[in-house]
Amino acid sequence: MRILRLLVWLVLCALACAGRHAIAGENESRPAPAAIASATDFEPPHLEFATESAYLLGFIGNPNSYEIGAQFFTGRLRWGVNRNDASIFRGYNQVYFLAMAEPIFRGPETHYFGISAGFRHVFVRPGWRLQPYASGGIGLGWIDSHADVFGAQGQDFTFNILTQVGVDYLVNDHWKFNIGALYQHLSNGGQTDPNPSLNLIGPQIGVTYSF
């Protein structure tokens, strides 16, 4: 009886060891599940440089039919990230500084040069290459004013307001293109009378390099 019990015990031990080895082999042969990154894991660029061009038409409040080209050179710095998937503002904020050169194709003046600073928000959705954005800022500049012409700007020194909406297309980790609409307001803040001001709106395209 002792010998039989010993044999049974040895058989059970052997079966148990064999089962363990079989399970271990199965687990080793089965590929480990791929790590799935959380939808909240995205890393916006820290710094960007962009060049953007626009064609603007005058509207509202000025008797002259202005047509203006606009060229912007912009630096943007990331400032805050929203990683909440449930938020419509999922994305990141930027502060920007830009310099502008604007030839005036139609209107009493011939050119405008200025600077502007403001904020920009980029909306980021998981897996999207298209990223909508909205921005706004204020600045100042100089125009070759003609105070003796009706509807022209009353002095060279002029403030500006910029508002942009559009969408970025991500080509890769460093390059992206954008297309959108731009609103620009020029005014000397009531420093002359009359102060006709100027409202402009038009399409905009650009390219951005990100770090």
Mind explaining what this structure looks like?
- The radius of gyration is 31 Å and the shape is elongated.
- It has one domain (47-210): Porin (Beta Barrel), CATH 2.40.160.
- It has one helix spanning 2-29; strands spanning 47-58, 67-82, 91-106, 111-123, 130-143, 157-170, 175-187, 198-210.
- A hairpin with an 8-residue loop joins strand 2 and strand 3.
- It has 1 helix and 8 strands; from the N terminus they run αββββββββ.
- The protein is mainly β and 211 residues long.
- 13% of the residues lie in helices and 53% in strands.
- The model is unreliable at 1-8 and 14-39 (pLDDT under 50).
- The chain has an 8-stranded antiparallel barrel.
Whole-Å distance between the termini? 80 Å
Helix content: 10-25%
Tell the overall outline: elongated
The total of beta strands comes to 8
Continuous helix count: 1
Uncertain residue ranges: 1-8, 14-39
Question: What is the fold-level CATH name, i.e. the topology?
Answer: Porin
What is the CATH top level name? Answer: Mainly Beta
Strand content: over 45%
The figure for the number of domains is 1
Please, what is the average pLDDT? 85
The CATH architecture name reads: Beta Barrel
CA-atom Rg in angstroms? 31 Å
Order of helices and strands: HEEEEEEEE
Q: Could you give the order of strands across the largest sheet? A: 1-2-3-4-5-6-7-8
